[in-house]
From TrEMBL:
NAD-dependent epimerase/dehydratase domain location: 20-242
Pfam families linked: Epimerase
Segments crossing the lipid bilayer: none
Name listed for the protein in its UniProt record: NAD(P)-dependent oxidoreductase
Length: 342
């Protein structure tokens, strides 16, 4: 890594005079990052392809810049005149052809880094994913250095690992990598909606009575970590796990969410071997017939249900001063309140 830069906004109101490009602005995390930055006085250039979602973000401190970050001209034009970049944009799903993951997550990240290097961007915060740790075993207190060199459980994971490697190939760009786990909150289109659907249409499968530990993150806390990663000089060149730091059992989380949502709790206890067999079979069939839709069960989802996985966030606490603002229960209550009001 290159020389350690000075804090990007020392001795000022946090974001005064700072302009930050946020990719993935039209997505789930991106919106919260923008909110967090604007609250602290930053100017934001919100980047994404979805014009409608982008225009809805615009405000006194937020301008929308429509573009595709895997297109050199788009991302170069967007980076001109900004001080820092948060690269939260990605193809963030667990099923699909490698070419799409490669283009969005690997090539796209390379283009972002080229633009950052060209314009001498003071800091890049890259949003990676702890899914890269996924393995067929319980893993507690995973440290950032425990990341495997390769993991091809799915193309998303493979692409996120490759993207991290791309970051290390640009030492001239002062970068920070964050690995936030299991984001949830209002606007989540993934975790809670899936659970709800499953519970309403069928039942939620439990292995070993759902006692496996899960380490989730309120999306507001992840957005806070992103801002801290932009601001803290000691974060330069580092990688940080981000969670709420309060692992709960799978079943406990489900109970809290489903009770709050007043949805009938429907669980079905299934043997791990059966679910592993189903996941493997679905994946093989879907791959063979090139089915674009995500299979009803994938190996990745099976691993999430089967094994405990918790992350050590002490590095983020120490270097970034990261202290989660919302507890898991508060995050769930907020989600539930919004769900009931809508
Ligand atoms: N959600 C989680 O639990 C979780 C956990 C760990 C890590 N992460 C990481 O956190 C980041 C944000 O995730 P998220 O949940 O907010 O995902 P998301 O809601 O799917 O948002 C991703 C955004 O990326 C944008 N994007 C994708 N390809 C693009 C391209 N070629 N050019 C421009 N924009 C592009 C999309 O914007 P347009 O539709 O406007 O193109 C989309 O809104 C991702 O890097 C993801 O890997 C997420």
């Amino acid at each position: 890594m290159g020389p350690v830069p000075s804090p990007i906004c020392a001795n000022k109101r946090k974001g005064a005079d700072m302009k930050v490009l946020v990719t993935g602005a039209t997505g789930f995390l991106g919106k919260y990052v923008i909110e967090e930055l604007v609250e602290q006085g930053y100017e934001v250039r919100a980047f994404g392809r979805n014009q409608k979602a982008g225009q809805a973000l615009q405000g006194p401190s937020v301008e929308f810049f429509a573009g595709d970050f895997s297109q050199e001209e788009d991302i170069f034009a967007a980076c001109e005149g900004v001080d820092a970049v948060v690269h939260a944009g990605a193809l963030s799903t667990i099923w699909g052809p490698w070419e799409q993951f490669y283009r969005a997550n690997v090539l796209g990240t390379k283009r972002v880094l080229e633009a950052c290097r060209h314009f001498g961007i003071k800091r890049l915060v890259y949003i990676s994913s702890p899914s890269i740790y996924a393995a067929a075993r319980d893993q507690l207190d995973i440290k950032e250095t425990d990341a495997p060199k390769e993991n091809e459980l799915n193309f998303y994971i493979k692409s996120k690992l490759q993207a991290e490697r791309v970051i290390s190939q640009y030492p001239q760009v002062p970068s920070v990598i964050l690995r936030p786990r299991g984001l949830f909150g209002i606007g989540d289109t993934s975790i809670f909606p899936r659970v709800l659907r499953l519970s309403q249409q069928f039942a939620i499968p439990l292995i070993k009575n759902g006692q496996q530990l899960m380490d989730m993150t309120c999306v507001e806390n992840a957005a806070l970590a992103v801002r801290l990663a932009l601001e803290m000089p000691q974060a330069h060149g580092q990688v940080y796990n981000i969670t709420n730091g309060e692992p709960h059992s799978f079943k406990d989380l489900l109970d809290q969410a489903l009770e709050g949502l007043q949805v009938r709790k429907r669980y079905v206890k299934l043997p791990a071997g059966l679910l592993a067999f189903l996941a493997q079979s679905f994946e093989s069939i879907y791959r063979f017939f090139r089915i674009k839709k995500e299979p009803p069960l994938t190996l990745y989802t099976y691993y999430l249900m089967r094994y405990s996985q918790t992350l050590d966030i002490s590095a983020a606490v120490r270097d970034l001063g990261y202290r989660p603002r919302l507890t898991i229960s508060e995050g769930i209550a907020k989600y539930v309140q919004n769900y009931r009001n809508n």
